[in-house]
Amino acid sequence: MTLQASAPKTGVNVARAIRDATIAGLIAFGILLPLIGFETVQNMRNELALETRPWLLAIFVGLVVLASLFISFVVRPWNQHRRAVRPAGASLKGAALRAAFAKWFTPFALGVAVFYPVLVIWITGFSGAVKWIDNFGIQILIYVMLGWGLNIVVGLAGLLDLGYVAFYAVGAYSYALLAKTFGLSFWILLPLAGILSAFWGVLLGFPVLRLRGDYLAIVTLAFGEIIRLVLINWVDVTSGYAGISSIPRPTFFGIPFTANEDGFAAVFGLEFTPLYRTIFLYYVILALALLTAFVTVRLRRLPIGRAWEALREDEIACRSLGINTTNTKLTAFGIGALFGGFAGSFFAARQGFISPESFTFTESAMILSIVVLGGMGSQIGVAIAALAMIGGTEMLRELDFLKQIFGAGFDPTQYRMLLFGLAMVLIMIWKPRGLISTREPTAFLKERKTVAAKFVEEGRG
Amino acid sequence: MSATDVLQVEHLTMRFGGLVAIQDLSFRARHGDITALIGPNGAGKTTVFNCITGFYKPTEGRIALHHGDPAMWDELGALTDSSLRKRVRADGGLFLLERMPDYLVTKDARVARTFQNIRLFKGMTVLENLLVSQHNPLMRASGLTVLGILGFGVYRHAENRATEKAIQWLEKINLIDRADDPAGDLPYGDQRRLEIARAMCTDPVLLCLDEPAAGLNPRESGELSELLLSIRQETKTSILLIEHDMSVVMEISDHVVVLDYGVKISEGTSAEIRDDPNVIAAYLGVEQDEVESVITEPVS
Ligand SMILES: Nc1ncnc2c1ncn2[C@@H]1O[C@H](COP(=O)(O)OP(=O)(O)OP(=O)(O)O)[C@@H](O)[C@H]1O
Ligand SMILES: [Mg+2]
Question: DSSP code of A450?
Fold first, then answer.
C-alpha cells in the first residue's frame, strides 16, 4: 500500500539545497579568509604589510556555493534518476560492457605501449620525440614496474612496506658502482643488481617479518631511511650527497649509442640522434615491466602466490594448514625487492647520474600510493594509477600556457601535491579500495567469477 | 593398551601469567576414534587445541603423536630424552608436538585443525581454499616454484591431482556448485563444512575440530555428525572434537574427556559421562554434593 512512498524521491528539495549551499559557503569563507582574503606585500619602506583581497575571496566563496548548488540541482537528481530507472536490463548491459572492457583493455594497452615511440615520432617528429618518450614513456614505465613490484609485497602478501625505495636504491647503486669499478656491462649487472636487492630484501625480512601491521610499516620505513643515510654518509664508496656521475650507459648488445664511428648510428648507417638511445631504453624498460607482470601473473597461479594471498587473508589459518609463513613472507619481500632492484639498475643506467636525493621517502610514498590508488593486487589498476600520477605530474610541466592566464609567477608543477591530495580524497570517497578492487581467482572449475571487493582482505601485517 | 593410541597428552599445564588455563591434564585419543573434549565456557578446551597444534607452547607436559607402526610408541622415552622433536621411519613416525612450531605440526605430524571462529580465506574462492591447503605437496611439485614458473608439466599434473581431490571433497560436503564463489559468500553452515574439508585436504591423521556445530541448526548438526562419521570411516582419520552441542557429542563420540577450570574432572564413554555427578555439577555450576538437590528440585 505504501509502495510509492518507498520509491526514491526524484524531485529537488530546494530548502535543503539552499541550506547546503549556505553551510558550504560559510565553511569556505572560514577556511579561505586567511588563505585568500589576506596577502602579505612589501610596501615602499620595505615593511611587511597586509592587504585584503575581498573580491578574490568573494569569487572563491561564490564558486563553492555554486558548486554546492550544482550538486543539489543537477548531480543529485541525475543520480537518483539513474538509480530509479536502472532495471535489471541496464545493469546487465553495464556488466557486458565491463566484461568487454576487461577483455580488450589489456591487449589494447599493450599495443599502445609497444607502438608508443612510433606514434610519438609520427606526431611530433624526430626533434620533439625524445622528451615525450623519455619524460613520459620511460618515466611512467619505471613507476609501473615499481608499482607492480611493490604490489607483490603489499597487494598480494598484504605486508605494508613503506621502505620499498631502499631496494630501488640498492639496485641503482649496485649497477653504478659495479659498472664503474669493474666495467661490467648493463646486461650482466641487471640480474646481479636484482639479486643483490633481493638479498637485502630477505636480510631485512628476517628480523622484521615477525612484526605486523603498523609496526612492520614503521620498521620498513626506518630501513628505507637507513639505506639512504648510509648512501649519504659512506662517502668513500658512494661519494655522499655528490652522488655518482658518468655511470656507463647501456649499449645495444655492445654497440654504444654515441656519435663516434663505432656508435649505433654509424654502424647502422643512420644519422646520429640521441633518439635511438631513448627508444632503446624505452623498450628495455617496457620489457622489464612486462617481465614483472608476467612473473607475477605466473606466481599467482603457483602455490607460492596462493600462499601469499592466503597470508593476506588469514595468517593463522595459513599456519594451521602447514604453510611456513616466515618463508612465504620472505619470498614476497625478496621477489618484490628483486624487481625493485631491476628498476633501480635501469634507472641508474638511464640517468647516468644518481644521488641519495632520488631515493627519499617521498619516492616510497609515491610508489605505495600508486599501488593503493590502483587497487591492491590489481596489475591493470596499478598501471593506470602510475599512468595517471606520473603522467599527470609530467603533464603539469606542459601547462605553460597557464602562465598567460595566472601571470608569469605561476608554476603549475607546484600544485602537484595539492592535486595528489585531491586525487587521493576523491578515490577514498569514490572507490575506497582503489580503481580496481575486485580479485581474479587463480583457479576455477566451471567459470572464472571475479571476487567482489567486500570479501577480499587487505592484510594486516 | 598404548599401542592403538594416536595422541597422548601427559601432565599438560598451560599458564598465562597467573592464570592457570590447563592444569596437569592427561588423556589419550585412540586411532580411528572420535574423542570429544567437553566442558563449560572457559574450561580450557581451545587452549588444549592450541597446545596440540603448536600455536601455544605449553608451560609443562608432553604431547606425543604417532602414526604407522604401533611399535614406535616404545621409542617415546628415548625420543623425549633426546633433544629431537620427531622420529620418522618409512613405516611410521613419532612426534613430540610441544617441541614443534605450528606449521610443522600440520606439515610433518599431520595434525589438522579448524577454529572456533571460522578462519576461511574469505576473499578466495571455495576451490582456492582447498588448493591452498594442499600447499606443501604442490610446492614440492612446483620445484619450489622454479619448475612451476617455467611451466613444467610436473606441476600441471600435480595441480590437476590437487583439483581432483578438492572436487572429491566438494562433492562430499555438497558444495561442488559453489566451487567458484568466494568463501565469504557462503552461508554459515557451509563455511563450517568447508573449513573441515580444507583441513582434510592436508591429509591429516588427527583432525581437531573446535566447536564445528556452533551456530548450526538441528538439521545441519545432524548432517555434520554424518559427515564426521563418514570421514572417520572412509579416511581412517582420528578426530578430536570440542563441542557444546551434546546431541552431536553423545551421538558420535567414542570417548569423552571433560574439563572444568583446566582440570580433567571425568573421562569415559558418552553414556558414562552423562551419568557422572561430577560432570553434571560442573555444567550446572554447583558443588558436587548439591547436585542431588538441584536435580530433584522442581522447576518453578
Ligand atoms: N592467549 C591467552 N592469554 C591469556 N589467557 C588466555 C589465553 N587464551 C586463553 N586464555 C584463558 O584461558 C582460559 C581458557 O580459555 P579457552 O579459550 O581455552 O576456553 P574454552 O574451553 O575454549 O572456552 P569456550 O567454550 O568459551 O570456547 C580462559 O580463562 C581464557 O581467558
Ligand atoms: Mg574455545
Answer: P
